[in-house]
Amino acid sequence: MQVNISGHQLDVTEAMKNYVNDKFAKLERHSDKITSARVVMSVEKLKQKIDATILIAGGEVVANSEHEDMYAAIDLLVDKLDRQLIKHKEKLLDRNKGAVEH
């Protein structure tokens, strides 16, 4: 999966990029149909904010999170994306089961 990481009013360090890439690599266990991800990190007053869009076969998954610490915000974001990808996978499986039963 190609991960495009950018910063808005924030310099994205190499450590942040590596952390995001490691976390996003774990998301691929839910679907091999993930083509790319777009991540935007920003700072708003005292909050660290991160937004992500994952392009997947059949649509896209979008999530965002805020926290005082950027690494904690990344963890929260990946948890949200993880849940959404599981839900997407279950929907596809349910759809396929329904087609077979008829």
Automatic annotation (TrEMBL):
It comes from the Bacteria. GO terms for biological process: negative regulation of translational elongation. One of its GO terms (cellular component) is cytosolic small ribosomal subunit. GO terms for molecular function: ribosomal small subunit binding. Keywords: Translation regulation. Signal peptide: none annotated. During stationary phase, promotes and stabilizes dimerization of 70S ribosomes by the ribosome modulation factor (RMF), leading to the formation of inactive 100S ribosomes. Belongs to the HPF/YfiA ribosome-associated protein family. Short HPF subfamily. Associates exclusively with 100S ribosomes, which are dimers of 70S ribosomes. This is Ribosome hibernation promoting factor. It comes from Thiopseudomonas alkaliphila. The lineage of its organism: Bacteria, Pseudomonadati, Pseudomonadota, Gammaproteobacteria, Pseudomonadales. The gene is raiA.
